[in-house]
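Run folding on both entries below.
>entry_1
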Amino acid sequence: MTTAKAGDKLPDATVYEGKPDNKVKVRDVFKGKKGVLFGVPGAFTPGCSKTHLPGYISDYDKLTKAGAQVIACTSVNDAFVMAAWGEQNKADGKVLMLADTQMELTKGLGLTLDAEGMLGNKRCKRFSAVIEDDTITHMNVEPDGSGLSCSLASVVLEQLQKS
């Protein structure tokens, strides 16, 4: 699968929020809204916990002022792990924590990261995207799949301010 790009629609993927029986369609999250979706290789991992998620939480007010109506984080972890990670980082009310347990979203976006040697299984490449009514307007995928440069909140903020 090719990596999703600006102009592509979000895949019709199901993710989970808070607990395994709370199914969420990604398209429903962004339907009729402008927002930010970002993905990380793993909850509680160093770069994700020290920089990536905290950046979106600390820049929440700036991002919403620039037009984001919803901000969502996804990872190939279970719903309980994502909920606990969000709670630890005080994401409630700011960032939706979406578990992509079946990799429907990750595969649908063409963002599978082979992290078997590092994290034990396949994961999601680190990325960020600006979404407008289910359509990707900006797609930022880290060149190595896990770095912290083009997918940061500061980059997305600039993109929101220009659109």
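>entry_2
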Amino acid sequence: MPDADLPAALIFDVDGTLAETEEAHRHAFNEAFAEAGLDWHWDQARYRRLLDVTGGKERIRFHQELAGLSVLDDPAIARLHARKTALYVAHVDGGRLGLRPGIARLINQARAAGIPLAIATTTSLANVESLLRATLGAGAPGWFAAIGAGDMVARKKPAPDIYRHVLDRLGVDPARSVAFEDSVNGLEAARAAGLPTLVTVSRYTDDQRFTGALAVLDHLGEPDQPCRALAGRAPAGGVVNLPALRDWLRG
């Protein structure tokens, strides 16, 4: 059983939090558009704006609305998004993405301490499982007591639904657990579910403001690669570990 003073559970977002995935997603979208004969191309500036909308199908729909288009109906959007997901998964399965600093270390520490792990994300379940297998090993999806992903809930972040979905399955006190996020939408979702939240900014969220986070860091840190605090206090030694999370929860 885990120490009662340690977090009751660790709940991770995926894109931008576990790994810097968004460029792989952007390229997969553009490949899918080209295959479908669409003259759409999302450059980095456009994609940064589109990331304000959570969910890939929702992002495609929003792009159409911005451009004043009605090229694709909902079934066509779903098919296009499914192809994009397949392209992304192939990219990940090829071993071309790695976890951000400190992620694997902290996950392994939590497992050793008996602390439940969970995922709460708006990305597709196939994307989550592919990333976990490619970076942590074939059995890694089974390490997580709950995986909330994709369309498992009606409303996506910043609504708290996906976090509440996961918390229901974990059966833990949200106030004693920690969520890990990289975006304002994710932070708002986690906090609305009652979860203290640690933010590690990512490539596409470095211009956002994270009011209410436990702290805002550049990453979780490694012994040879200490993290920096962008807001709040950095952990001792520049490494986020279970004692550091305990101390944040204590305030």
